[in-house]
């Protein structure tokens, strides 16, 4: 191999780690970009199409639920898919875990599920573990009704999440926890959004810690939904819509930045 051939080989070499980073892009174009610190040219994907997700949780099947879904359907921004973060039918809130409620919830949500993909994950109300009536298998109704391609990830269970340990956080409201790691402010800490405000039978969580903690950037007890818009590999926009507002009104918004590609201070708090 001569020097010229060796040079071309080095210029086009992409490491395994870099290949994994490139997988972030789905619809993209490739461009050669010079990476000076490596001394080689690396293929990097630039996302050229925006991805919109309708985000909701704790929807249930109440009068408020029947406001949340039409409110989204009439919004000028439509999600290309729905990210549903758990607590679907609230069957367990009815005597003997009345499974007819699963059927009625399916008919209620069909107005959207028939026309766009929904990405499901489970909440505590999908557990349906009721030994007192002979139901000893957790998540049985959910797993028989909602199929997910979980085997593709090597998982043994069709639930789109995993956790080793952590505090239980359940909030029938809208909350944003900013990047503050108590007791030391740390901008590398993640931002958490709690959006359990779809319209469930339990009502709103109106009891909150007073005064509002510094780590809490925004909170409100209102029903609604959110639109999460992935603009490109560096920027994403999040907008929360309340049911009592107009279809186009964004009650709370924030920008998120990919810290790998765009390392900046993205805390939503006002004092940082």
UniProtKB/TrEMBL annotation:
> Region (Disordered) spans which residues?
1-22
Name the InterPro entries on file: Calcineurin-like_PHP, Metallo-depent_PP-like, PAPs-like, PAPs_C
Q: Name one GO cellular component term.
A: plant-type cell wall
What top-level class of enzyme does the UniProt entry assign?
hydrolase
Q: Which domain of life is it from?
A: Eukaryota
UniProt cofactor(s): Zn(2+)
The segment(s) forming the Calcineurin-like phosphoesterase domain are: 55-179
Stretches assigned to the Purple acid phosphatase C-terminal domain: 189-246
Instruction: Report whether Disulfide bond shows up as a keyword of the record.
Output: no
So what does this thing catalyse?
A: a phosphate monoester + H2O = an alcohol + phosphate
Which terms does the record give in the GO molecular function aspect?
acid phosphatase activity
Instruction: Cite the entry's keywords alphabetically.
Output: Signal
GO BP field: cellular response to phosphate starvation
Q: Does the keyword Signal apply?
A: yes
EC number from the UniProt entry:
3.1.3.2
Under the heading PANTHER family, the entry gives: ACID PHOSPHATASE RELATED, PURPLE ACID PHOSPHATASE 10
Query: Could you identify this protein by its name?
Result: acid phosphatase
**Naturally occurring in which organism (per UniProt):** Brassica campestris
The lineage is: Eukaryota, Viridiplantae, Streptophyta, Embryophyta, Tracheophyta
């Amino acid at each position: 191999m001569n020097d010229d051939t060796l040079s071309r080989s080095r210029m086009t070499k992409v490491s395994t780690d870099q290949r994994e980073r490139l997988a972030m892009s789905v619809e993209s174009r490739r461009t050669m970009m010079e990476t000076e610190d490596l001394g080689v040219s690396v293929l990097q994907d630039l996302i050229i199409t925006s991805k919109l997700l309708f985000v909701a949780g704790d929807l249930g099947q109440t009068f408020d639920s029947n406001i949340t879904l039409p409110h989204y359907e009439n919004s000028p921004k439509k999600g290309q898919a729905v990210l549903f973060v758990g607590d679907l039918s609230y069957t367990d809130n009815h005597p003997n875990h009345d499974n007819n409620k699963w059927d009625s919830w399916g008919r209620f949500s069909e107005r959207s599920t028939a026309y766009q993909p929904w990405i499901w994950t489970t909440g505590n109300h999908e557990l349906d573990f009721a030994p007192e009536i002979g139901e000893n298998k957790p998540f049985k109704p959910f797993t028989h009704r909602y199929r997910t391609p979980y085997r593709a990830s090597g998982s043994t269970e069709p639930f789109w999440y995993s956790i080793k340990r952590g505090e239980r956080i359940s909030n029938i409201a809208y909350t944003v926890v900013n990047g503050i790691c108590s007791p030391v402010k740390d901008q590398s800490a993640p931002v958490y959004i709690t959006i359990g405000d779809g319209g469930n039978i339990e009502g709103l969580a109106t009891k909150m810690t007073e005064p509002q903690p510094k780590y809490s950037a925004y909170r409100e007890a209102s029903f609604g939904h959110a639109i999460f818009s992935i603009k490109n590999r560096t920027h994403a926009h999040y907008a929360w819509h309340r049911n009592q507002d107009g279809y186009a009104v964004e009650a709370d918004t924030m920008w998120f930045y990919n810290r790998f590609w765009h390392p900046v201070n993205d805390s939503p708090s006002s004092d940082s």
